[in-house]
């Protein structure tokens, strides 16, 4: 599923494992990536990843995905792929848009806007 050209881009971005890590030898990164892609492509739960495929368990692949996400692997890969596509003229920047969900909101700034009350009016006093 992951061809050699794509793997050559991804492999240098992955964080290295400690030489003497406790527990059994970890599943190869390339196999975990293939397991991650299998789960995402087939839209299945991590627990349903078949062990017969040789990608490791769903939990192993999920942990590796979390580790890589925390290390910023996918953000860097995204930038590299965009630069390559742009280099060969494969991007139409006139159709690009900004996604506001990726921009931090300014915190702590108060906005002074007059708002109409949604409560009822006070009754007139009869005394």
Describe the structure.
The protein has 127 residues and is mainly α. The chain contains four helices and no strands. The protein has helices at residues 4-10, 29-42, 58-70, 73-87. Helix 2 packs across helix 3 (58-70). The termini are far apart. The mean pLDDT is 85.
Low-confidence stretches: none
* Percentage beta strand: under 5%
Structural class, please?
Answer: mainly alpha
Round the mean pLDDT to the nearest integer and report it: 85
Overall form:
elongated
- The radius of gyration is 25 Å
What would a concise description of this structure say?
By secondary structure, this protein is mainly α.
Keywords:
mainly alpha
Structural topology:
Elements: H1 4-10, H2 29-42, H3 58-70, H4 73-87
Helix pairs in contact: 2-3
């Amino acid at each position: 599923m992951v061809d050699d050209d794509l793997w050559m881009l991804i492999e240098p971005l992955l964080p290295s494992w400690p030489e003497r890590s406790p527990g059994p030898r970890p599943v190869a990164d390339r196999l975990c990536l293939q397991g991650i892609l299998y789960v995402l492509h087939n839209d299945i739960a991590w627990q349903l990843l078949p062990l017969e495929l040789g990608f490791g368990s769903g939990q192993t692949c999920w942990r590796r995905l979390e580790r890589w996400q925390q290390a910023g692997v996918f953000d860097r890969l995204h930038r590299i792929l965009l630069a390559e596509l742009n280099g060969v003229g494969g991007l139409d920047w006139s159709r690009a848009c900004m996604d506001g969900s990726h921009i931090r909101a300014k915190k702590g700034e108060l906005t002074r806007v007059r708002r109409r009350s949604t409560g009822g009016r006070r009754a007139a006093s009869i005394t």
